[in-house]
Amino acid sequence: MIEFKHITKTYGDTDVIKDLNLTINSGELFVLVGPSGSGKTTSVKMINQLIQQTSGDIEIDGQNVQTTDLRQLRLGMGYVLQNIALFPNLTIQENIGIQLEELKVPKEKRVARARDLLTQVGLDPDSYAGRMPDELSGGEQQRIGIIRALATNPNIILMDEAFSALDPLSRKQLQDIVLDLHAKATNNLTIVFVTHDMREALRLGSRIAVLQDGVIQQVGTQEEILNNPANAFVANFFKNEQETQTATVGKVIIQGYGHRVTTTDTPKMAFETELSDAVRTLRQQPAISVAYHDAWYQLKLADVLDFIENKEEALD
Amino acid sequence: MTDLLRVLRTQHQDILSALGQHLSISLISLLIAAVIAIPLAIYLRRYRRVAGVVLQITGVMQTIPSLALLGFLIPFVGIGTLPAIIALVVYAVMPIFQNTYTGFTTIDPSLEEAASAFGLSRFHRLTRIELPLAMPLIVSGLRIAMVMIIGTATLAALIGAGGLGTYILLGIQNNDNSLLLIGAILSAVLALIFSALIQWLGKLSFRKIIYIFAAILVLFAGWGAYAVISRPAPTITIAGKLGSEPEILINMYKDLIQQDHPRQKVVLKRNFGTTTFLYKALKAGQIDIYPEFTGTVMESLVKVKNYGHDPQKIYRQGKTLLKQQDNLDYLSPMHYQNGYALVVSKAFAKKYHLKTIDDLKAVQNKVKAGFDLDFYQQKDGYPGVRKAYNLKFGKVSSMQSSLRYKAIASGEVNLVDGYTTDPQIQKYHLVALKDNRKFFPPYQGAPLVRNKTLKQHPGLKRSLNKLKGKITDKDMQKMNYQVTFQHQKAATVARNYLIKHGLLVK
């Protein structure tokens, strides 16, 4: 259990966090969501004391983090960063084992643990363990980032905008991995996940806290937040998700469907094209291409159908 | 080319020892600079402002001309290896510090964040993450420093630290390209080899680098300890200026001393630099003896003006003043005079029956003279001699001192200035005309000795004075020729002379 008790944080004259009170239960996949500058990253970094609060206490299972030995505190916690931050001078398996190395775990055990974790996220240890980080794609690198945080079998993992820099497809895959690892964990694993993306929040969070300007607006489950928003800000923030009309190809891609391609020979369609127009074209063509974030994404009819199917489920 | 090979054949041992000196001076300097700069940069990586100040200071040190720095150090640490190493360290600190600092401060901050978030200890973070990431830049800093050190170390020869610079200076002085090439090529090769070696070192793991570093340190410490322990009981140190003539003389001193006192240890420091360096070293007791000319004593050491032209009087005046000024003993001079001379080709002299400078008067219209820049301008050079002998040459041009012998050999000019014992006189079949009106100031060589040394070693004076009145201009010229152009060993040439003239018993 992680408890924030009357936490404030001030940088110069600005209050970044104002009297934050929050309890994160053991075993939760807890999401902190909010627009940029809302104080969510600051809050999560206080848990492992990368940032110190101006006042108030943070307790983990009743133990104040500020009186806990810093090294002990951090070694007992996993951490996943937005820029992944794999150490470029270490191999994949050395990266995964870095905390174990600090704990003086013998090399054979570190290697075995790294190989086990690689298998769990669908990467073949024989071909990945000895490689250097820059030989991997962004999505693959962040998988390593996640299992690196799992290496010591910690009770708490902090993830700070972990997937924000990735393309929609990798993002969706990694979200699945996080859900899967959390479900499979046998040690009552608590994950604190920070994101600015409300879809990601809804997808992952067993409970979600919505932050704005350093103040918690609402804490609740997916349903509570979508159906009973505490105030106009929360309602507005999640409004887009509730709007079901006028689905566009852009939405399909943002949700993680389709494939990123380097060259395209299929018909190009604008991001705002309505889904009905896209389906019409797809009856004649094998695929269409849509520009998104300086890259091309290819959609097939099957992708659109998957999107509609999942959307129906979400509405049920 | 054949010259080069001959030098290599006859002097390979000296060259090797110069190479060794160069190498050890450079390596020690690099090691000290690295030991200072790397930990300092690592420590200051979190104090940007202080690091900025340090960077400024090291930058300023870098801009001090190396000769000025060496000169500045002499009053504090004397001459020889120590000031050379200090100067080199001063130069090498900046590139190593700057690169190490840049290497550490340009590490991606998110990697630093990750490392601290994982709870890595300071040491673990430094050795496992930061140092390896900064290593490429540190290594390139070391390479820059090493190449610079090896290049600058050639100047160490000027203050008696030896090394490859000795050959470069000798080459310039004697206009001998083979010596120049040996010095320049070897230092370039040394720089290349070490640059490659350091790069290779940078690719090794951190642990191996530490091992190699430690091994080198232990090696040097051992060598230093050995040098201290094995330092022999009181020795006499004899030094000589740059060039063949001083080297021949100091070898003679050594032979003469050891003939009388076979157990006496004598250390020779050849090519020890210029007048000022030697004189300071003598006063400081770093050397005991060096041969000096009476003219130089008057001009540069006791600074007397208008000292006349009488060799005896000048010697006596110099001797008295040196004794008063610095308690140094100026022993009896040898016969030869290494002074200015007007030099013509043998053929020219024969054709017009030239023996003295006065004889030039008759052919002055036919004279095409080439003079060294200094000689052309100085009062005791061409302007003076022209007045004293009332001469008016057909054509006079000034040229670089190293070129004038070539000019007379090729017939471009038919009269040049020179020194009476220059080996080129023999080499190019020239003759020095007699200064029959005794215009040129006399330059007689004699041993200059510390009074303390004379007291510690009774009999030393007697041994050295055996050269009193010995060695003619011709003899010296011939010996210089043997060393400079035939590349014989100075020690051999010196010994042969002493034996031939009965001063040394085989």
Automatic annotation (TrEMBL), chain A:
Superkingdom as given in the UniProt entry: Bacteria
Gene Ontology terms for molecular function: ABC-type quaternary ammonium compound transporting activity; ATP binding; ATP hydrolysis activity
Keyword Translocase among record annotations: no
Keywords carried by this UniProt record: ATP-binding, Nucleotide-binding, Transport
Coiled coil, from the record: none
Name of one Pfam family that matches: ABC_tran
EC number: 7.6.2.9
Keyword Transport: yes
Domain ABC transporter: 2-238
Secretion signal span: none
Name by which UniProt lists this protein: ABC-type quaternary amine transporter
Organism, as annotated: Levilactobacillus suantsaii
Organism lineage: Bacteria, Bacillati, Bacillota, Bacilli, Lactobacillales
Automatic annotation (TrEMBL), chain B:
Gene Ontology CC, one term: ATP-binding cassette (ABC) transporter complex
Superkingdom of origin: Bacteria
Membrane topology note: Multi-pass membrane protein
One MF annotation (Gene Ontology) recorded for this entry: transmembrane transporter activity
Keyword vocabulary terms for this entry: Membrane, Transmembrane, Transmembrane helix, Transport
Chief subcellular location: membrane
CDD domains linked to this entry: PBP2_ChoS (cd13610), TM_PBP2 (cd06261)
One of the GO biological process terms: glycine betaine transport
PROSITE patterns associated with the record: ABC_TM1
InterPro entries cross-referenced by the UniProt entry: ABC_Gly_betaine_transp_sub-bd, ABC_transp_perm/SBD, EgtUBC_SBD, MetI-like, MetI-like_sf
Compartments in which it is found: Cell membrane; Membrane
Entries under SUPFAM superfamilies matching the protein: MetI-like, Periplasmic binding protein-like II
TM regions (residue ranges): 23-43, 50-70, 76-97, 144-172, 178-198, 210-229
Family the UniProt entry places it in: In the C-terminal section; belongs to the OsmX family. In the N-terminal section; belongs to the binding-protein-dependent transport system permease family.
Protein's name according to its UniProt entry: ABC transporter permease subunit
Organism from which the protein derives: Levilactobacillus suantsaii
Lineage, top ranks: Bacteria, Bacillati, Bacillota, Bacilli, Lactobacillales
